[in-house]
Design goal:
- It is a single chain.
- By secondary structure, the protein is an alpha/beta fold.
- The protein has 20 helices and 6 strands.
- Strand 3 and strand 4 form a beta hairpin.
- Helix 4 runs antiparallel to helix 9.
- It is elongated, with a radius of gyration of 29 Å.
- The chain starts with a helix and ends in a 5-residue tail after the last helix.
């Protein structure tokens, strides 16, 4: 226990603290922007980012991963806030946490194994594109000086690490360029232009709503959707950070942690949140590896708001835009272009569909779900090919079945036999086949019945143990 505590919290103190500071600075405009998307006061997103990051540092299953208010979740909240107001959103956030906690207890993370690699690649690439697209309104067509600051930021974050790594390059860029902008009176958009920041700590509150079945019916659909999207994004992000750091994480613990964080967050006036791939990448690339980096990100965020709020609002947006563009470039899987050429066409199609739907809808869950469904369809189509070979020896007729017999292949199976045969000994050999479901057993019954109608003697052989149990339990005819 002590060894684990040291490893997860204090094995990389300097790297975690500096990375957490960078993430905190990058969290502020994101949290404000997501609050605007959800239709709530900017402080709701900032409180959420503070609460979730600090709590998940203790109860999450993936050290070094950043969780806070997110755009994917904010989009789902807008109708609820518009129709019922903030108090209902806070209640929905608490219920979201409860649902996620239940999912974690029942080990819902096991569903991650059903997400194919093509979907994962599509998810990452779509996220990179969305991160970049989210920056466009903050620099395109604003001013020449905006372009200059974005370019200098990118120059700093890419060049400085080659010569100096003691302090994360994004933090250097923020400090230097903010100082130049303030003392040089450079006319740039700042963090303060996104919304007003109030220097007040979050306080415990119980949502002011009627505690009734009607209220539950209002918030339940939103909470369930938020819980699914939040866990999906969190678990996928955890897998990506696992790959980036070459470490493993407890996905079920992460599910429970996300639930606990959202429950507490809702009681302190925050909107529902989840893991953030962009901020997690910033954290890892800035040297963050342990839980301390996540804790520092949340704690320093609130320190910035309460103590340095007047200074924070003067941070130029082009600097943060440059950092996020760096994140989008680093997040994008550039090897996916060769993947499109080398991978099977079905896998390439799945990746492109995942990217297309996520970018078109701005909803990560829709793209991932569509990708998984399309992968399943392609997989079923691929394994549903079944071959029946006929071998004749006088009055003895043998059919050798090869392939997987289930609902998608039963039609081809039934059509493969010659039913004109009469008064013969017929053997159907399943040595190279497997019977999977009731549809398969029904198809075998149908074939046997057709042959018996012409006075044939039927023998079934070669069924493996699993197939034989299935046939014995479900077959109508005596096999």
């Amino acid at each position: 226990m002590v060894e684990r505590l040291k490893r997860e919290w204090f094995s990389n103190i300097k790297g975690d603290v500096l990375a957490g500071i960078v993430v905190a600075l990058a969290l502020i405009p994101e949290a404000i922007a997501f609050s605007i998307i959800a239709g709530v006061d900017p402080m709701v997103g900032l409180y959420a980012s503070f609460c979730i990051a600090v709590i998940i540092a203790f109860v999450g299953g993936r050290p070094g991963m950043i969780s806070a208010a997110t755009g994917a979740m904010a989009l789902l909240m807008l109708p609820l806030v518009r129709d019922h107001g903030l108090e209902y959103l806070l209640a929905a956030t608490i219920l979201t946490g409860v649902i996620q906690l239940v999912f974690g207890i029942f080990k819902v993370a096991k569903v991650m194994k059903f997400i194919p690699r093509a979907v994962m690649i599509g998810f990452v690439n779509a996220l990179a594109i969305l991160i970049f697209m989210a920056q466009v309104p903050h620099f395109l067509g604003i001013s020449n000086m905006t372009y200059v600051f974005v370019a200098i930021t990118l120059l700093i974050v890419y060049v400085v690490p080659r010569f100096f790594k003691a302090i994360p390059a994004p933090l250097i860029a923020i400090i230097i360029l903010t100082t130049i902008a303030i003392y040089g009176n450079v006319d740039l958009r700042t963090v303060g232009d996104l919304g007003e920041i109030t220097k007040v700590l979050p306080v415990f509150l119980i949502p002011d709503i009627p505690f009734s079945l009607e209220t539950l019916m209002i918030i339940l659909p939103y909470s369930f959707a938020l819980a699914i999207v939040g866990l999906l994004e969190s678990l996928l992000t955890a897998s990506i950070v696992d790959d980036m750091t070459d470490t493993e994480s407890d996905k079920n613990k992460e599910s429970r942690g996300q639930g606990i964080a959202n429950i507490i967050n809702g009681f302190f006036g925050g909107m529902a949140g989840c893991a953030m791939i962009g901020q997690s990448v910033i954290n890892v690339k800035s040297g963050g590896r342990g839980r301390l980096s996540t804790f520092v990100a949340g704690a320093f965020l609130m320190f910035l708001i309460i103590v340095l709020g007047d200074l924070v609002v003067q941070i130029p947006m082009p600097v943060l835009v440059g950092i996020m563009i760096m994140v989008s470039i680093g997040t994008f899987d550039w090897s996916s272009f060769s993947y499109l050429v080398k991978a099977p066409r079905t896998d390439a199609a799945v990746m492109l569909v995942t990217v297309g739907i996520v970018v078109a809808t701005n909803d990560l869950s829709k793209g991932v779900i569509a990708g998984v469904i399309l992968s399943a369809i392609f997989f079923v189509a691929k394994i549903s090919k079944i071959k029946v070979t006929e071998i004749r020896q006088k009055d003895n007729l043998t059919f050798q079945v090869k392939g997987q017999l289930f609902f998608a292949s039963v039609e081809d199976f039934v059509d493969a036999f010659d039913y004109t045969v009469k008064d013969s000994n017929i053997t159907i050999d399943f040595t190279e086949a497997h019977v999977w479901d009731d549809s398969a057993v029904g198809a075998i019954d149908k074939v046997i019945l057709k042959y018996k109608e012409n006075n044939n003697y039927i023998v079934i052989r070669g069924l493996n143990e699993s197939s034989k149990r299935m046939v014995d339990r479900l077959a109508v005819n005596d096999l």
